[in-house]
Design a protein that fits this description.
eight-stranded parallel β-barrel; globular; TIM Barrel; 17% strand; 42% helix; alpha/beta; single chain; two-stranded antiparallel sheet
């Protein structure tokens, strides 16, 4: 089956009440814990704060990550750049934009070093594209990096708050051998989008999926407690012959039972996958 993985931080203590943040003190623990649950993939997270110190971008850290991946058979096929959402280069000018583009290049080089396949850039919340000028700056600077992406078998993939038609048009401006889509079912449900309309518009560009549930117009909640129609989503993905990973970017356990909560979410996703993918 498609590999089911988890977003980094979901198997350790929550940090300052945040639903997602790089777990500085416990990041190594998630490899054995993920392996014990049968989760074969972990999506790394990069915050803008202390970005240059993150193990993902340092030589010693990369060596440690490689060793942990090999020891526990937990891959890191993707990385979410919350750093880009927190400090978007397409909303800056001059020297500041140059600094942020240098940071992006560091992330891309590090992903290539670790043989990560997908670099997720969230164009939502603070990173949302607000006008044509920002969109043009974004595509201009990302296209300049397309040769590096191709050479290293790497792709930049997006989350956006675009409606399906606008999203499809946006992706038509970018070549599919270097740029594609991370589909976040919770974000789409929160915005009131119909997944079948989304898949009809751009389904062939989806290469990674975030599994979460959100309230309509609201925040993340436990799977099944929000607006996501999971049967509709999984049936649609199966019809699209989606064959990538399902990353559990789920609500945090209020009682601190991180492993048992993620185990339950894994069971739910596995049940859905078998319902719609198996003959």
């Amino acid at each position: 089956m498609n590999s089911v993985g988890f977003m980094q931080g979901r198997l350790v203590d929550q940090i300052d009440g945040k639903i997602q943040a790089f777990p500085w003190k416990q990041w190594e623990l998630e490899f054995p814990r993920g392996a014990a649950l049968g989760l074969g993939a972990m999506e790394w997270t990069l915050d803008h704060t202390r970005l240059a110190e993150n193990p993902f971008v340092t030589a010693d850290g990369q060596e440690q990550i490689r060793a942990l991946m090999a020891q526990y058979d937990v891959a890191v096929p993707s990385v979410t750049c919350d750093c880009c959402m927190q400090a978007p280069f397409w909303k800056c000018a001059g020297a500041r934009r140059g600094e942020l583009l240098t940071e992006l290049d560091l992330v891309l080089r590090s992903a290539a070093e670790l043989r990560v396949r997908f670099v997720v850039i969230p164009l939502v919340d603070n990173g949302g594209v607000e006008n044509d000028e920002q969109r043009e700056l974004l595509t201009l600077h990302l296209m300049a990096r397309a040769p590096f992406l191709r050479h290293n078998d790497l792709q930049i993939i997006f989350e956006t708050d675009y409606d399906p038609i606008t999203y499809a048009w946006f992706m038509e401006q970018l070549p599919e051998d270097a740029f594609n889509i991370n589909y976040d079912m919770g974000n789409s449900a929160s915005l009131g989008f119909d997944p079948l309309e989304e898949f009809a518009a751009y389904g062939e560009r989806i290469v990674n999926v975030h599994v979460k549930d959100r309230l309509r117009g609201g925040g993340t909640v436990a799977l099944g407690a929000g607006a996501v129609d999971f049967d509709r989503v999984f049936a649609g993905l199966a019809r699209q012959r989606y064959s990538g990973n399902f990353i559990l970017q789920t609500a945090r356990a209020a009682d601190g039972a991180h492993e048992s909560t993620l185990a339950e979410y894994l069971r739910m996703v596995t049940t859905l996958w078998r319902r719609y993918y198996e003959p």
